[in-house]
């Protein structure tokens, strides 16, 4: 039996958990967020950044409607990216334009202070070991690696959640960067680390586009891989995601051993 409905009529759940959800209906994305402040940040940020962003179609709290961005992403966490070195370099150049932009008015996710990070990191490491989620030696080793990220940094305009699935390209041209709710002043190397999490072979291509004249410390990027993964495991588990999926956070932590 046929319903006569086309794929454009279908509602697809892109991501959903207790904090927010994103749905796709045809060429429209509907972002539903109980925290109005996150939507405010997203709308304000997209008006400021010097890179392509989705078109805002309408906004009726708690829903933000965005037009789909053309092109395809560089890949997804947990899957090796098949994008070309030129595509990774183009992404690096776009990220550099963002980081060089005038600073936004507020700190973002990448702007947590060293003291805040240390307190959060120590708490998460203790939880991971006490609950038998990860072996103590794995947590201890990655806590040591993460130490390099706990240093003073010069604020930049950061995305705050720059996963490879959030950057779209058509060929080697950036067509859009999505999901700006965590944006603000922060550590530029946090963005670079988030973008290359689980994609270490492509780091050199990204940096080639980002610019070797920038202050890019590869040890700090690797430290952020450990730090971000340690901080993310509990949240992922509690929100219905699996950090043990091959290529994801736990594999990133194991690769530091």
UniProtKB/TrEMBL annotation:
The keyword Hydrolase does not apply. It comes from the Bacteria. Keywords: Transferase. It comes from Streptomyces caeruleatus. One of its GO terms (molecular function) is transferase activity. PANTHER family: AMINOGLYCOSIDE PHOSPHOTRANSFERASE DOMAIN-CONTAINING PROTEIN-RELATED, AMINOGLYCOSIDE PHOSPHOTRANSFERASE-RELATED-RELATED. Gene3D superfamilies: 3.90.1200.10. This is Aminoglycoside phosphotransferase. Signal peptide: none annotated. Residues 48-223 form the Aminoglycoside phosphotransferase domain.
